[in-house]
Amino acid sequence: MVAAARPRRQPDTPEVGTGSVEQFHAPAPLSSATVERVLGKVRKPGRYAGGEWNSVQKDWAATALKWCFAYPDLYEIGMSNLGLRILYEVLNDRSDRLAERCFSPDVDLADELRAAGVPLWSIETRRPLREFDVLGLSLGYELVCTNMLEMLDLGGIGLTTGERSESDPLVIAGGSIVLNPEPIAGFVDAVVLGEGEDVVIEISDELERLGWHRRIRVGGIGERTGEWRRGVDRATALRALARIPGVYVPSLYRARYLADGRFDRLEALDAAAPMTITGRIAADFETHVRGVRQLVPNIGIVFDRAQLEVMRGCTRGCRFCGAGMQSRPLRERAPDVAVDAAEAILRATGYEEIGLTSLSTADYTHVREVATELRRRRPQTLLSLPSTRVDAFTVELVDAIAPTGKRGGFTFAPEAGSQRLRDTINKGVSDEEIERCAQLAFDRGWSSIKLYFMIGLPGETMDDVLAIAAISRRVLQMGHRRHGGRAQVKVNLSTFVPKVMTPFQWDGQDSTLEIEAKVGALRQAMHGKGLTISWHDPTSSILEAALGRGDRRLGPVIRRAWQKGARLDAWDEHFDYPTWLAAFAEAGLEPAWYAQRDIPTDERLPWAHLGAGVSTAFLLRDRKRALAARATADCHWGPCANCGVPAATGFACQTGEDGPRTLLVSVGDEGRGWRYIGPPGDPRRPTTASSAGPNALSGSGADVDGDNVEAGRGERRDRPYDLPGSEMQSKDAGPDGLASPVEAAGDESTG
Amino acid sequence: MSEVKQRWRLVFARDEEARYLSHLDAVRLWERAFRRGEIPVATSEGFTPRSRLIFAAPLQLGMLAEHELADLFLAERLTAPDLRDRLAAGMPRGYRVVDLHDVWVGAPAIAPQLAAADYRMTLLNVERTALESAAATLTAAERLPRERLKEGKSIPYDLRPLLLDIRAIPPDPKAAPPEAAAAMTSVWMRLRHTQDRGSGRAEEVVAALADEMGLVASPASGGVGGEAEADETRAEIVAPAARAVIEVIRPVRERLWLVNELDSEASSGGVVG
Q1: A442-470 confidence digits (pLDDT tens)
Q2: Helix count (H) and strand count (E) of chain B?
Q3: Which of B18, B21, B220 sits opposite A40 (nearest CB)?
Q4: How large is the ipTM?
Q5: What pLDDT, in 10s, does the model give residues B92-127?
Q6: For chains A and B, what is the number of CB pairs under 8 angstroms?
Q7: What string of DSSP letters covers A484-521?
């Protein structure tokens, strides 16, 4: 739809005539007048203007391989993504390569670009997307797939692998949803499974070795017309990528289906195509922090703070949680590494707040010592952390780092109303514990408590649903006793979405009627002052589940939905379910068949050739335990559940084998004061302290972004980005916390 | 609250990459720049202490600038080169510190001393002669009754006393669009900018010029005039689409003037036409 000539001319470059210095592809950027006239007509033009702190502008003529990270959602979401901040730094650390950024344009800009015939450009140097060598797509949520098509189209790139020319960039996707990339398989040239830090370097090395970035003039005419070809053809490049561990090249396979519509099998079409692919795990997570010079936006974004990932992976084993199951094994940053890195990040960004991120930071062994030391060093800095734990430790922790003044809402996620159902989903928390937590939060000054529950979990009965009302009312009564009429309980309901590579991947969603009946009954049982219930229309959850468990036949459906105008589906104001239903119908398919069907466990799954470490045998075993409402212990503290990660990934688990582990500091031992142990070799450090932590490598594939931000995206509308969000601010603040000698750049060697 | 040891008057410019920031975005950006540059900024009292940086006048989203003013209060004394280095170390692309002056800590606040602001912008689809005569008409008028939207309500006011000077100037070469076939010229204006006696808005003057020429002014680039307002006005403007539309590009606030500066310039026969 974008009409602009290609390929473009070589513009003036600063190093012309230096002979020995190789000149690389350097098309002219869009003129600032062109950009200005388009941006003059759109809302929030600051999203597209660039100039952010720590953003990198490089000379195209002097850089070989050129990446553009295309984040298929709005700037405010994409810039909040820690994975993007990390990979941007990893690639730009090489002076002879570059990585730029582009985010989904809002609908107003997309329409302006089409009307003006201007291609979508990269933020840093304003080059059309098609001029890059590699387009890196970060897919963290099922409903962004139409944004991906919109970006490709506006960027002047062929939508499917078959439609791409030899000069188009390679389109490579990563992110948490690519563990089942089959629905989008036709749109991407390659998929990176697991964590991206190392593999982006390997991909870059391979493409440069092959000459993918090279433009060779075609004949004598080429000198005048500017026609060129790449140093290697597309098919050869793709076959080479398929040999890199963790890289999946969908076009090297063909999917077969049975006559009744079920998936049959995937056939390899090329000798280079491996039959199973397992997600990557980045090396040295415990001791090596990447993403220090984090991008700092000029306009407000969703997560407007620095982020330090203190832990990767999760061993809680909640059976509905894709992120937790797919990101094993657990790796924790050594406390001295975490503290120094946090300080380096704060210095490099100027941020006033830092989030200690992971899937559940209260589970991070060193969370208290890291928080204490950070507060000591930088008393002015606000701290925040997400936690999925419902226990006194979390409340104590948040209480310790939260300001003592006004206190808003405290959030817990019991996920299910009854003890039985919580055992089924392995969210092992009792009614008594929930009440104890609520009491503690009320006692510590919070007057409002938010409770998150899921509706439609496997095995759920109406009794389980009504138990949500019962526990919520009990919590409210406790609040009334402590805070009188000010007390509030806000209940937030979301619809269960089966995630691939979890024990519930075979379980269908409830039908819309069932969900509505359950929510209706719950509403009736929950009314009264101080009790509010919020619930989101479940149609987007159906689509999430359908795309999440889909196969390659959904590719045309996605494309059709986009053609019919589906864009920015993750946003309420744009999501239109009838559009999607019509697109499914045209392909003779139904979202309900994908989303609501209970898949027999002996049926072959469209994503069976891909893996995240956790074995299918374990998932089946764990599902049996779920049906019997039996818990599986967290191997961080308890025995090994034989999830299969070490065998699949080659990484040794340090948990589970030495028997149960304990927190370094237990709640109540020392009240709010706890001691920083100090770096290795520090004389203050007790010899008995668990210094063994960061040595043995353990690891597993989280999403390529390595970030809990994306993990939470499945429930974008219903979830806060960080559960019990909290801030720390100390009154006796002074600017003396700036004394660390840590360099912002750290020792960021890559690859 | 920290004790103020020094006060600097910053003169700064805002370029392409920072032009689409709202005032709040800009405040946050400067605070982060101070932290990155490790500048010992004095902080205000309160639950969330803010850096003591006082802008003379907020700059609209979309507006470029060449000579903005702000007072920065420090808790420790710095030399000018040191402050300059530290500012440079922390400022993102798009902001440039043009000059800085050590000001007496007890000097009067900056905003009440403002007298005027100069603007320069390029108008597409406007002939130079048409602009010249429209500008002359505005200058000759006794009153220029206009309405301004404020919180959804329309408030009538007179633009004429706020318009100190206006003239057509040659087109800004940087503003040339690639397909610059349409007529294009630039306008320069000096508007009153005071705390107590009102301030003129450049886009209001452009709208008045457009009325005079029988044209419609499209909202200036990047929604100059604030995002919410730009949205409201756009809906109204699109309706009478029959008339040709003036497109405003590269709006620049050239300079803010303090009362004493303007006085001395007037007496020395400066640029005021």
Answers
A1: 999 999 999 999 999 999 999 999 999 99
A2: 6, 11
A3: B220
A4: 0.88
A5: 989 999 999 999 999 999 999 999 999 999 998 888
A6: 106
A7: GGG-EEEEEEEE----TTSTTTTPPPPPHHHHHHHHHH
